[in-house]
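Bumping my old thread because nobody answered last time. Still need a sequence for this structure:
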């Protein structure tokens, strides 16, 4: 049975009502977001922004030693110079964290989606395997020991997060007020 809110396949886009056009557009967006390229792009973009925020937060906590510099006495500089150095440092650290988080999000999401499509299953093994492949891939330039450690660390973290999210819909524990 045809959904009354979606246009019939034979109807031209220009012949649709405004409501049908809106529903058709929403359907197209949801189909893209549910696809592997859509998930990969969405993970990369959200990882980029999360990484930027994380970098800003970490940079604000490191007021004594700017990122990547050999300056030891930041407090000896005039206030205007201190602010200039700190904001420049914050921008560098935000950019670095944003790129790293976005890259990790894209790799992990693409590998997990590919595994899910290949295996035709949605289970804990996809996330753990994607975590292992992502962790090993990020650390491969540092040698086999680092790749193995990266694989184990990312796989364990992915497995823990997936297991929590799948357990009773991640419900919070019961407390004394639920009686």
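Sorry it took so long. Here it is:
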């Amino acid at each position: 049975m045809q959904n009354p809110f979606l246009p019939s396949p034979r109807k031209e886009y220009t012949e649709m009502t405004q409501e049908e056009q809106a529903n058709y557009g929403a359907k197209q967006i949801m189909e893209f977001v549910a696809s592997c390229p859509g998930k990969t792009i969405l993970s990369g973009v959200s990882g980029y922004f999360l990484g930027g925020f994380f970098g800003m937060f970490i940079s604000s906590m490191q007021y004594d030693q700017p990122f990547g510099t050999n300056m030891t006495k930041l407090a000896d500089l005039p206030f205007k110079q201190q602010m200039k150095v700190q904001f420049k440092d914050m921008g560098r650290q935000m950019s670095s964290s944003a790129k790293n988080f976005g890259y990790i999000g894209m790799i992990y999401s693409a590998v997990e989606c590919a595994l899910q499509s290949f295996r035709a299953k949605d289970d804990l093994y996809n996330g753990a395997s994607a975590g292992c492949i992502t962790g090993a891939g990020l650390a491969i330039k540092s040698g086999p020991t680092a790749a193995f450690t990266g694989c184990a660390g990312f796989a364990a973290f992915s497995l823990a997060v997936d297991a929590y999210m799948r357990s009773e819909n991640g419900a919070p524990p019961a407390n004394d007020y639920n009686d």
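The chain has a mean pLDDT of 83. Let me know if any region looks off to you.
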